[in-house]
Amino acid sequence: MRMTKKMASPLLGLVVSLGVTPLTVQAAMVGPNDMSFYDPPQMTSGAPGDLTWYRQTTVDLGANAVAHQAWNLVYRSTDAKGDSNRVTGTVLVPQAPWQGSGQRPVISYAVGTHGLAQRCAPSLQMANGTDYENANIAAALRAGYTVLVSDNPGYTTGDSPTYMSGAAQGHAVLDIVRAARQLPGSGVTSNTRVAVWGYSQGGQTSARAGELQPDYAPDVDLVAVASGGTPANFFDTAEYLNASTGSSFLLQAVIGLAEQYPQGIPLDTLASPYGKAEIDKVKADQCVFDTLFDYMNKDIAEYTVGNQSLQQLISIPSVNDTLEEQALGGEKMPVPIYQYHGTADEFIPLDQHLALKKKYCRKFSNVTFGVYPSEHIVTQFQAAPTVLEWLDDRMAGEFTLGTCLTLKPRPTANANPGGGDFVVTLDQWPLDANIHLATLDQDVELPEESTFTADTNMTAGTLDGDLAVPDFSTKLNIVLPLDVKLSVEPSSSTSGSASLDNQGQLHVDGQAFANITVKSAGAGVLQIPFGCKTENPVAFPVKFDGPISDLGAGNLTFTGTTTFPPMKDCGLFNSLFTTLMSGPGQEYSFNVSPPAPTTW
């Protein structure tokens, strides 16, 4: 199979293999401002990366996005079989001057799964302010990069995405760099340094782009690749997904690969009437979170003629060859690569990505592997600062040794069991908490060792968790400045509702309850024991409504105002402590964020 790919690449990139940067046959046109933009003219000639047409646009990346210019474009690319195709995408350029050396560099951002309907295209989602990857795209813009976001092939009107066809996706994220060079005002030139960054589907895309670049796009000055949550081995990944939490991704992969390889995966003969109806529904109007919940825990056999199992399907030679064609690691990565994965990933198995690292290392690639203690969605956004810092260093030409030579033990997966509810576990996440005492007008910071553990069941819509706060000392002005030893002890679990809607918005509505105890007060080691505490537990409402990206980005913050009950067991000081520490208007802020990553 590898021989076929290596033979195809020079033919696909014949122009660039001769050292000539591809140019348009005729000047690109300004395209229309309505949806007819996605129905571009047919291309009869030209080279990969030729710009068909473009238009200025506006995108909504959220409140933290920096000022930028944006364009939509349609450009020529190449599918996995060597045929020309048309791909849509978006170019975003920060308005602030580049602060680094040389030209402003480019990140070609390879998106994760968006869905097979046209309305799911990243360019349309960004325009509507509903793209779930906005946080990472905005972070790359804040870092000063020009960001290119290919929609991937198949979102032009009348087409269907070739979802998970690695070569087609890899070509698309390389060709958008070439197309951006032809875009007036982009600032992208043949000398622009380029990195490709992607996660999940985008992890496959970015790694494949790196493998393809030497033959397919030697004119693209690729300096680094970042590839996270990567499905490197489709056989292992399919087995992991089937009849489990992420089974919708397997169904979409079958549809997308059948679109690219109709002889390899002949859906007309493999899919049952029920399966064909479900395929039509997925293609017609469902985006990623629609399918995630509608097809959770479904077995692929439900959609096949004679209820053929996954193993029976994989044993069909043409299907087997098609899946094998998507395998990563057959080529040396020509530039440094940052691979990363969550140990609790419930969608993409960790072990097959670790195996890809070993494949690259055996070919003397420069690999750094980041290990994150979280599940799939959390890791995607938690990793962004680390990825961008690593890419900054590569763009600056700094050397990296990588982690191929490591004595650390192999990471172990700890994902929740598949086949049941979709549960996101927060396992001893650091808790950064502050309580503002109203009467004293003073802040109490909980100790750094405080943690929050919870199961957020997105299927059942429930939250069940616990605070863990060690006893600690703080300075309080109670008549005189005193060192006060406090205890914040949960009286019951943190409970409530938690859900993820079809727009990728996370909703949390619960309460945490804790007894607050003044254990002692004094000056330094000279402490007078008290043991006085609130008559009843303090109720802290925990409410959050925001993008799912905030969960991994460390922006899951609960703020509010509560009432402290009167104090008891304070002896002669009962009235004093009640006056100073009880009553309404006690403000609080609880922020929970994922534990820090490591490397392997």
TrEMBL record:
It comes from the Bacteria. InterPro entries: AB_hydrolase_fold, Lipase_secreted. The keyword Ion transport does not apply. Keywords: Hydrolase, Signal. The keyword Hydrolase applies. Coiled coil: none annotated. Residues 1-27 form the signal peptide. One of its GO terms (molecular function) is hydrolase activity. Pfam families: LIP (PF03583). This is Alpha/beta fold hydrolase. It comes from Alloalcanivorax gelatiniphagus.
